[in-house]
Amino acid sequence: MLRFRSLASGSSGNATLVEAYDGLHHTRVLVDCGLGLRQLQAALAAEGLGLQDLDGVFITHEHGDHVGCSPTLLARHSVPLWTSAGTAQAMGLADSTPGLHRVRDGQVFSVRGIEFHPFTVPHDAREPLQLRCSDGNRWLGMMTDIGHVSAYALANLAGMHALVLESNHDVDLLARSAYPDFLKRRVGGQHGHLSNVQAAAALAALRHDRLNTVVAAHLSERNNRPDLVSRAFATVLNCADEDILLTARRGRDWLVV
């Protein structure tokens, strides 16, 4: 069984716990770790878990809302960390750091019972990677920080049973926001974050009969609203607005892929 749960989503922090269970053993990997150590411990404790239950962390890119306490987990708690060489360098991690595993676009790797397939995306970071992962039976695709949806990203997320998909901002709310112009250009640019319209278009391209779970992620607290995302996704999926799960506001229970 493959399942996942959002521990945090948004500009203040991002972390998704992915778990596989083969009937004997659990494998638990954090995809991003944009929380402080105490926050992470509290979130895990709510699930009856501790740091010792983590088999690893995958960091998609070096921005603070994704890195969080992961260097501490690596250095002080011996939790292995997987990321790209560019991200590791931007995080200040030496190549010889114990427990650090550098991976690249298209390099498949496994953490016990979960197989990970990283792929590159357009985002304003050193060497950003997003993921699809599998327990050998079901597939979860994750794309949470991307400026525009490339054909390569769509190809990597084709055929997923579940998707975690960024829907960061509403174009009109961003345009009217108090953000300075340079930040508006950054967020809405080709290497920034997806708008609701872009996310819905990606979802339309990725929709198929076996896709049964879609979670909207990385919603801006200032430049988006859950109801706008729900409406955009529900239109594509032909379902009721309230059926759409939003990691930033609700829908934080475990979701089976």
Number of strands: 14
CATH class: Alpha Beta
Task: Give the termini distance in whole angstroms.
Answer: 8 Å
Q: Tell me the CATH topology.
A: Metallo-beta-lactamase, Chain A
Percent of residues in β-strands? 15-25%
Give me the Rg, rounded. 17 Å
Q: What average pLDDT do the residues reach?
A: 94
- CATH architecture annotation name: 4-Layer Sandwich
What does this protein structure show overall?
With 257 residues, this protein is α/β, with parallel strands linked by helices. A seven-stranded mixed β-sheet has the order 6-5-4-3-2-1-14. Strands 7-8-9-10-11-12-13 form a seven-stranded mixed β-sheet. It starts with a strand and ends with a strand. Helix content is 27%, strand content 25%. The protein has a single domain (2-252), classed as Metallo-beta-lactamase, Chain A, CATH 3.60.15. The chain has nine helices and 14 strands. It has helices spanning 37-45, 64-67, 70-77, 85-90, 151-156, 171-176, 181-188, 196-206, 226-237; strands at 2-8, 15-21, 26-31, 56-58, 81-83, 100-102, 109-111, 114-120, 129-134, 139-143, 162-166, 213-217, 245-246, 255-256. The chain is globular and about 45 Å long. Helix 8 packs parallel to helix 9. Helix 4 (85-90) links the parallel strand 5 (81-83) and strand 6 (100-102).
Question: Which characteristics define this entry?
Answer:
Metallo-beta-lactamase, Chain A, 257 residues, globular, single chain, alpha/beta, seven-stranded mixed β-sheet, 14 strands
